Amino acid sequence: MAYSITGLDPDRFAPLFAMDDAALAACNARRVIATADRGFPCRISLEDARAGEALILLHHTSHDVETPYRSAYAIYVRPGVAAATYRDAPPPVFEGRPLALRAFDRDGMLRDARLAGPGEADGAIRDLFADDRIAYIDAHNAAHGCFAARIERDGQ
Fold this sequence. Notes:
Elements: E1 3-6, H1 14-18, H2 21-26, E2 30-33, E3 54-63, E4 71-77, E5 85-87, E6 99-104, E7 110-116, H3 121-129, E8 136-141, E9 147-153
Antiparallel strand pairs: 1-5, 1-9, 2-3, 3-4, 6-7, 6-8, 8-9
């Protein structure tokens, strides 16, 4: 089963980078500086920011559906990066992190889920996509709960 993982569209977040701290706070966002080379995962580039890089921490609706499974949580995004795409391989931001993989049908209803330990994401994704009812998978960091990326069957 072929799959693709694409970072979020940077155009959606571009206005945030021009805002001052008060305007960001008014929309429940914060400007932060990465204090380490790991722990600040950008949801656009699907890589961790490096120490000293600026990011915006914001509330993001990752599963914007009209079902009980609608989901939102905090994410980081960086300015000046392109949306990364990975095919048939997990992105760097998955490395070394346990993931919660939530598999949904076309109507946005949860059909299955898996926990994937570090290095297990590819196999778990392929296992979930073996079920033809699964249209896409949302990956979340298992410990912190934040949205990591959307995984889609290639060609959908």
